[in-house]
Amino acid sequence: MKKLYKKYEMLSAYLDNELSDAEIKKIEEELKFSKELQEKLAELKKVKQLTVSSVKSVPENPFFETRLAATMRTEKPLLAKMRKFAPVLGVVAASLVLMVVLKYNPQIVDKLVEQQKSNITAFYKENLKPLLYTANLNNDDIFNFAFYHQLPLDNQKKQVLQLGSDSKGNQFFEIKQAGLIPQQSNLKKFVESLKLNDKQKYEVDSILHSYASDLQSQVLVNRENTVAINPNIWNFNKALAADLIAFAAKVNKGQIAKVMPADFEKYYNNGAIARAVSQVKSSGNEKYIFFTPDSIFSEPFVFDKNKYKDEMKQWNEELNKNMKEMGRQLQDLNVSIHFDNDFAKLKRDSSWNKDFKVFVDSNGCRVHLSKLFIPPVQIPDIDSIISHINSASGLFKSFSFNFQKPKGKNFNYKYFYNDSTKSYNFKFRSFGFDSTYTSGNGKSDSLLISRLKNFRGSMNPDSMASMFRFFFNDTTNVHQQKQLQRQLQEFQREMEQFRKEMEQMQKQFQKKTPAPQRKSPMEI
Amino acid sequence: MGASKNMKFTKKKKELQHPQILNLDDDFSLIKRFIEGDESTFNTLVQRHKEKVRNIIYITLNNHDLVDDIAQEVFLTVYKNLNNFRFESQFTTWLYRITVNKCKDYLRKMKIRNIFSPIKDSEEELGYTIHPENMDISEIVQKAIAKLPEKLRVPLLLKDIEGLSYQEIAESVQCEIGTVKSRIFRAREGLRELLKPYEQELRA
Questions:
Q1: Cα(B144)–Cα(A465) distance, rounded to whole angstroms?
Q2: For residue A238, which of A304, A381, A437, B17 sits 20 to 30 Å off, Cα-Cα?
């Protein structure tokens, strides 16, 4: 069968005249004797004829060449065709170039980043002016800075720079909204309570003034909403507080002794404070911390104090002459740092920064510094001085409080700590020094408890500083109160003893009289 | 007897084809001139071969409408690649191969397109049913040829209509001469089978 099929195939090829001479000879021989093959050949021939006759060629197209020529003319050259790949090729070429460049010059990216960074920092460093110059700080503000660690950042005193330290002793500063209770006339109260004469008053003013000019170079602001802070401001803060306390102790020993820690005297007597103060004033730190609307960074920056000295003088003179007009001009320089979503991003970005940590909330922005940042003051016992200064200046802090008329058994107590976020409204179930208490929402507040541990006090109208409505720790009043308590307890004990004695006497008396009567029946 | 007659007939044809061989040489010289920069010779090449190319496309795709478009593509490809022409084989062989490949490309594209649009053209479908009452013989044969698979149809038509040699067909569709021979035979057998129901009409 297969053989036959091959033969038929040969016939088909024979028909097409595609066989070699030998093959033709062979197939023609076979054809002579095989009827089958002859029939097949006839069939194939017929099919071929049918095919040839029925299939017509496609009709000619006279315009074919013209059309082809036109297409060829419009056909874009290879380069034009490549144009649609241009973006891809561009990217490929760019990445190749980048790869080569990075291969031979790996620092280039770092350099670029550095340059960009310095461009940004340069932008924010421009036109930095002292804060006192723009926020128009007066001696009152500087006095508050000493004891409340707060510096207002703008004319309206809406935002403040707050210095502080957390429970671990790590220092931080915050830029935040100012508390609800404005701090007013604290300096005046200070002066009044110390019963200063005019000369001494002038001395206080000059101390504050001398710090004011130093503080100038510590906090700088500009129109770009930048606040540049020199970490040395901490030391200035301590020095100023120490200076004022030392001054207060000098002029009115009797009054100050009531509020001072017991062994504080030895520090201001042996000149340690004076040394610390001069040390702080002479030490400089050229690295500032920049708060800007889009980043927080630390950069070396040299502030030219002398450049502003004359200008400041002029300003102050004019300020005194024409208060209103100058005030309006100063308003232009107001700083207002907005804490929005960008700052949340900033927090993420700067969390890797080993120099400082940034915490942002709706109220403000807090920057924790590593200790290295603050230039150390080279006095051996400075730490102990500082702890004393802190505890001393802590006594100068004021609370405002509000007792409402007792409703039933409960006392309402409002507590303001110059800061809306740290103010409490809580109730005492019963009023007593070691009573249990609950805060406004009925839950005990751990922060409050820790604060109230140190809180033993009452109104103290004749204390050295009349502005202190409440005292911490060891005031004489507390002693008196404690003594009274002890006396009362003693009295109670005595009373109890007396009662017992009385009872005994009664028993003895009862024994004496009816005893014989009772005895007799028993005897009977 | 018939066989010898047939042989004579084919021999005559061979003789007739002879001058064409000279023409092929002429193709070479035209191409050489084209490579040297005389682009006008391309027109001569187009004029000379366009009908063959168009016919091959028509045979392969069995569709009038596509012929000119694909023929244009073929000549554009030729134009772009003519500079690289190596004078190892005949120009026509190269040209037909390009043509057949273009047709294959088109069919492949259509196949992919059909995957995504599964609804077939109903008219095309109807075209396969033959209504002999309204048709003459050539129409019947054409329909039958259209029914053949492409693999068989193209070599058959290249041989019988275009008169290409087995060698040329083999090079155009890129297969062995033996395969061409076998396919042409199978095409004829298939055609015969398809035309069996119409024997009467065909005889008439």
A1: 121
A2: A304
pLDDT at A94 (0 to 100):
92
Taking alpha carbons only, the member of A327, A326, A365, A325 closest to residue A344 is A365
Query: Which phi and psi angles does A412 have, rounded to 5°?
Result: -95, 140
CA distance B97 to chain A (A): 19
Element (H, E) at A416: strand A411-416
Q: Which long-range contacts (CB under 8 A, 24 or more apart) does B21-29 make?
A: B23/B48, B24/B90, B24/B91, B24/B92, B27/B90, B27/B91, B27/B92, B28/B87, B28/B91
Q: Which domain holds residue A467?
A: 406-474
What pLDDT does B144 receive? 87
Q: Which residues of chain A have pLDDT under 50?
A: 331-333, 341, 350-352, 378-382, 396-407, 410-412, 416-423, 425-479, 518-524
Q: Tell me the one-letter amino acid at B139.
A: E
Q: How far is it, in rounded angstroms, from Cα A293 to Cα A342?
A: 8
- What are the C-alpha distances in Å from A31 to residues A21, A22, A47, A312? 15, 14, 19, 128
Q: Do A71 and B76 touch (CB under 8 A)?
A: yes
User: Tokens in use for B188?
Assistant: 């004829």
Domain identity same for A101 and A127:
no
**Is A344 found in the same domain as A236?**
yes
Query: How many CA atoms lie within 13 Å of A234's alpha carbon, on the beta-carbon side?
Result: 24
The pLDDT mean for chain A works out to 67
Contact B58 A18 (CB under 8 A): no
CATH 2.40.440.10 for the B121-204 domain, yes or no: no
Is the pLDDT at B175 greater than 80? The verdict is yes
Same domain, A308 and A426: no
Q: Is A19 on the interface with B (CB under 8 A)?
A: no
Q: Please indicate if any CB of chain A lies within 8 Å of the CB of B166.
A: yes
Mutate: best of A57, A66, A78, partner B, most B CBs <10 A: A57
Q: What is the pLDDT of residue B50?
A: 87
- The CA distance from A398 to A186, in Å, is 9
Q: At what angle do helices A21-33 and B2-36 cross, to 10 degrees?
A: 160
What pLDDT is recorded for position B18?
45
Given an 8 Å threshold on Cβ–Cβ distance, is A51 in contact with B156?
yes
Amino acid at A229: I
pLDDT score at B172: 85
Mean pLDDT of B120-136: 52
Residue A428 and residue A437 in contact, taking contact as beta carbons nearer than 8 Å: yes
Distance CA A193, CA A256 (A): 10
Q: Order across the sheet with A287-291: list the strands.
A: A129-130, A219-221, A227-229, A287-291, A296-300
- Contact between A298 and A287 under an 8 Å Cβ cutoff? The reply is yes
| Contact with chain A for residue B150, Cβ under 8 A | no
Q: Which of A205-214, A275-284, B90-99, B185-194 is predicted with the least confidence, judged by mean pLDDT?
A: A275-284
> Which candidate from A51, A64, A75 shows the least CB-CB separation from B141?
A51
How far is Cα B115 from Cα A162, in angstroms, rounded to an integer?
A: 73
> Which 3 state secondary structure label does DSSP give A434?
coil
Q: What's the confidence (pLDDT) of residue A91?
A: 92
Write phi, then psi, for A431 (nearest 5 degrees): -90, 125
ipTM of predicted assembly, 2 dp: 0.76
Helix and strand numbers, DSSP H then E, in chain A: 22, 14
* pLDDT at position A65: 82
Q: Does the CB of B122 have a partner CB in chain A at under 8 Å?
A: no
